[in-house]
Amino acid sequence: MRLENIGVVAKREYLLRVKSKGFWIGTLVLPLFIVALSVLPTLFLTKSRTDHQVVVVDETGRIGQEFAANPNGAQPQKEGEEGKDQRERVARFEVEVEAPAADREAQRAALDRRVLAEEIDSWVWIGEGVLRGDPVEYHARSVSNFMTQEVLEDRLSELVRRTRLTEAGYDPDRVGELSGSIDLKTVRISEEGSRAEGGLGSVAFAYILFFLLYTMMMLWGQQVMNGVLEEKGSRIVEVVLSSIQPFELMMGKLTGICLAGLTQFVIWLGTMMLVTAPGMLAAMATLPEELVLPTVTLGMVLNYILLFVLGFFVYATMYAAIGSAFNNLQEAQQVASVAVFFLVVPFMIMFQIINDPNSTLAVVTSLIPPFTPMLMTLRVSLDMPPLWQLLLGYVLTIAFIWGMVWVCARIYRVGILMYGKKPTLQEIWRWVRYA
Amino acid sequence: MNPMTPTLELREVRKRYGDFAAVDGVSLAVPPGTIYGLLGPNGAGKTSTIRMIMNITAPDSGEVHLFGHPRRPEDLRRIGYLPEERGLYRKMTVIDQLLFLGEIRGLKRRELLPRIERWLERVGLAEWGKKKVEELSKGMQQKVQLVGTVLHEPDLLILDEPFSGLDPLNQELFKELLVDYKQQGKSVVLSTHGMELAERMCEHICLIFKGRAVLAGELRQIKREVAGNTYRLVADGDLDRLPQVPGVEQASVQNGVVKLMLRPEAEGPEVLREMVQFLRVHEFRSEEPELEQIFLKAVRDAA
C-alpha cells in the first residue's frame, strides 16, 4: 500500500467537491437558515405578545380585581424563574373587569360579539364556586393557543390559592416561604479536583456530538455513497485500478470526501460562533451563580475531536459499503437507512450509560466499534474512562474502519466488473472472499 | 534486459467464473518492439486475459511475467492501459484529469504539466485544457483518453479494442502513435476482433477462442504453417498432371487460375522447375492466405 496513492485520490475527491458550486451553496445556506431561524421567531413573538385583551366577569368580586391590578404576576417566583421570560413572550394580558349583569345570557352574547368583532381576544367567566374547585370558563375564537391558556390558568390558580389561604386565616406570602422546595447542588469529583457542575450540563456535549454526527451523516453519507457509485459508472475505474490498489482508491475516496465534509463543518462552526458570540457572551454575563457550566479540559476536547472524526469515518464506511455493492442510486438508497440504525442504537442505550457511566454495559458497548464514537464521547463527558479503555476504543475503531474499507474495496473491485446485475447477499459475500 | 526477452509473457493463465472457463490456459509472449495482436471473437476471453495482466482480476493459476520477471506491482506503472469500457471523470477539467492519471502512476505535478501541454498541443486540444471533460465532444474525449494512456511514457501499451467507436481522424492518430511506439522499441498489445486491422498492423498475433490460445506466433510464420505454401499459377498445358508433381498437395483450377497448395516441406522454386517441363507458365507467385481465413480455419479445428 502506498500512502501517496491514497493522497492523490483524496486530493482529487476533496478538490472536486470543494471547487463545486453545490458545496458552497450548501455551506452558506445552512448558517443563513440558522440565523433566520433564531432571529425571526423572536421578532414575531415580540410583536404578538401585548395583544391578549381579556374581559373577566367575576362573580366572586375579588379575583377579577386582583387579576386586573396585576395581570402578569407579582415578582417572579423562584421556581418559575426560567419560565417567566418565556411566558411573558407568549402572553401579556390586558384585563378589563365586568361585574356580572342581571341578564347573564345577554351579557354572554354581548361578550361573544365583542370577540367576534375582534375588540377583545377572549373573555373569562369566574363563577362563584371557583374557590371550591369549580372550573373557570374561557371563551375565545381559537382555543388551541394552549400556551396562553396555560399561563392564564397558572395565573388564576395562584390568585385562587392566595384567596383560599387568606380566607382560611393564613398569610399567603408566609405560606409560600415555608413551603418552598430545595435544589440539589451537584458536585463532580475528578482527578483535577471537585467542582460544582450542572448534572445535565456534562451530557450536553455528548448530545451535541450525537446530533452533529447525525446531521453530518444525513448530509454526507449520501455523498460518500454517490462518490463510490459514480466511480463505477464513470468506467475510468479500470484504468485507475490498473495503477493503484482498490484499497488505496477506497481509502483515498473516503478520506477526500470526509475532509470536504469536515471543511464544511468547520466553516459552519466558525460562522455560528461568530454569529452567536455576542449573544453567548451576554448570556454568560447574566448567568445566575448557581448554574455552573461543565468543565471542559484540553484532554476532553482532544477526545471529542478525535471521536468526531472517527465517527464520521465509521458511518461513511457503511455508506461506502452500500455504494460499492450496488449499481445505481435507486438500488443503494433502499438499503442506505441501515447505516442510520447504527446511529440510533447508541442513542437508545444513552440514558442507561448516563445513569452509570462505568457500568459493564457502558464499558462493553463503548468498545464496540460502530458505537464507540458516540458512547465514548458520552463517557468522556461524564467521567473520563481509564486510559486503556480509551486507547482500546480508538484502536478497535480504527481497525474497524480499516476492515470496512478493505471489505468495500473487495466488493468494489469485483462489483465494477459485473455490470448491470443487482447482487445478492450471497454474491457479495463471495466477492469479499474472492481474491 | 536482454533485447530478446519478451516484454510480456503469459504462462498457462487460467480464470474461471463459476462453471465458465473465461480463460483456459493461455500462454503467449510479446517480443519487444512489436505490435502484438490479441485476436478473437467477442467473448473469447481477450478482455479477461488483459484484466489479469493488469491485475484487475487475479488468475486462478498461471503466471504473468512483465519486462523479464514475474509481475511486480510497480511494473503496472510502466504500462499504458486503455480498457474497452472507456471513461473519464466528467466533472474534472482536462488538465486536472490528466494530472490525476499521471499522479497515480507515481509522477510529480511539475514533470507532468509540461508533458500535458505538449500532448494537448499534439492532439490539437491546447485550447481545451481548462474545460471540463463533459464540455468536450466525444472525439475530443477520445483524444484525452489517448493522452492519458501514454502520458507516463509507458514501455508497454495495452489497448483493448482501441478503434471501436473512434472517428477516422482519431483512428489515424492512434495508428501513428502505435507505429511511433514500435519504432522506439516498445511493445504494443492490441486486442481486437477486426481481422483486417490486425493483418495490417500486427507482426505477431495470438488467436483466442473459447478461452484458449488456438494460434500464437509471428503472423508470417503462422500464415505459412497454417495454410501451407499457397501459390497462384496461371499456365497453359496439361494442368491435370499437376497433382503428380512432387511437393504438390492440392491443385484446384478456377477460371483458368490454379490455386496450388504445397506440402509444408516443399519449396516453391523447385516445384516451379518441375512444372515448367510440361507447362508454359505465365504467372507463379505465392499468395498469402488472409488472416480471416486462418482464423476461421483455426476456430473450426478447435471446435
Entry keywords:
heterodimer; A: 435 residues; mainly alpha; D-Maltodextrin-Binding Protein, domain 2; 4-stranded mixed beta sheet; two-stranded antiparallel ribbon; 16 helices; 6% strand; B: 303 residues; alpha/beta; Rossmann fold; Alpha-Beta Plaits; 6-stranded mixed beta sheet; 9 helices; 14 strands; 30% strand; elongated
Give a written overview of the molecule.
- The complex is a heterodimer of chains A (435) and B (303).
- Chain A is mostly helical and 435 residues long.
- Chain A has 16 helices and 6 strands.
- Chain A has helices at 3-18, 21-48, 63-69, 81-90, 104-116, 146-167, 172-178, 201-234, 237-241, 246-286, 298-325, 329-355, 360-366, 372-382, 387-415, 425-433, and strands at 52-58, 93-98, 122-126, 137-140, 187-188, 195-196.
- In chain A, helix 8 (201-234) runs parallel beside helix 11 (298-325), helix 8 packs antiparallel against helix 12 and helix 8 packs antiparallel against helix 14.
- The radius of gyration of chain A is 31 Å and the shape is elongated.
- In chain B, the strands form 3 sheets. A 6-stranded mixed β-sheet of chain B has the order 6-7-8-3-9-10, sandwiched between helices.
- In chain B, helix 2 (94-103) crosses helix 3 (109-122) and helix 2 (94-103) runs parallel beside helix 4 (138-150).
- The model of chain B has no long low-confidence stretch (mean pLDDT 86).
Write the topology of this structure.
The complex is a heterodimer of chains A (435) and B (303).
Chain A: H1 3-18, H2 21-48, E1 52-58, H3 63-69, H4 81-90, E2 93-98, H5 104-116, E3 122-126, E4 137-140, H6 146-167, H7 172-178, E5 187-188, E6 195-196, H8 201-234, H9 237-241, H10 246-286, H11 298-325, H12 329-355, H13 360-366, H14 372-382, H15 387-415, H16 425-433
Parallel strand pairs in A: 1-2, 1-3
Antiparallel strand pairs in A: 3-4, 5-6
Helix pairs in contact in A: 1-10, 2-10, 8-10, 8-11, 8-12, 8-14, 10-11, 10-15, 11-12, 11-14, 11-15, 12-14, 15-16
Chain B: E1 8-17, E2 20-30, E3 35-39, H1 46-53, E4 61-66, E5 69-70, E6 79-82, H2 94-103, H3 109-122, H4 138-150, E7 156-160, H5 168-183, E8 187-192, H6 195-201, E9 204-209, E10 212-218, H7 219-227, E11 229-237, E12 248-254, E13 257-262, H8 268-275, E14 279-286, H9 291-302
Parallel strand pairs in B: 3-8, 3-9, 6-7, 7-8
Antiparallel strand pairs in B: 1-2, 1-4, 4-5, 9-10, 11-13, 11-14, 12-13
Helix pairs in contact in B: 2-3, 2-4
